[in-house]
Design brief:
Blueprint lengths: L14 E4 L10 E4 L2 H6 L2 H9 L17 E2 L15 E4 L8 H12 L1
Parallel strand pairs: 1-2, 1-4, 2-3
């Protein structure tokens, strides 16, 4: 996990990237709750879905980073108040209902 990565200075772990998808530059804590990110962490389930052809084949070829913290962004962020000096969120809010987006933005400010 990125939090334990000795290549990333501790003072740079105060930057949070929400809804990161496949974009995971170093120096950021990356968070995503998509099914693709979740499946990347479960190779047995991924292999089963692939073998049973229950998902499109292209889904299994996406190179998800193992450094992504899996979290549903509709839920409270699992960090104490004032944990980050920067929060980046691109192409994410439009996937949420208005009340969920507002809640996430309040969490970012927290």
């Amino acid at each position: 996990m990125l939090l334990n990565d000795p290549a990333v200075p501790a003072n740079q772990l105060d930057r949070l990237h929400l809804g990161c998808g496949l974009t995971t530059p170093s120096g950021w804590l990356h968070m995503d709750g998509s099914w693709g990110a979740r499946l990347a962490r479960r190779p047995l389930l991924r292999g089963t879905l692939r073998a049973l052809r229950l998902a499109p084949p292209a889904l299994f070829e996406v190179p998800w980073s193992p450094d992504i913290l899996i979290h549903d962004l509709r839920d409270r962020l699992p960090f104490p108040d004032h944990s980050f000096r920067a929060v980046y969120c691109s192409h994410t809010l439009e996937h949420l209902y208005l009340h969920e987006a507002r809640s996430l933005l309040r969490e970012c400010l927290r």
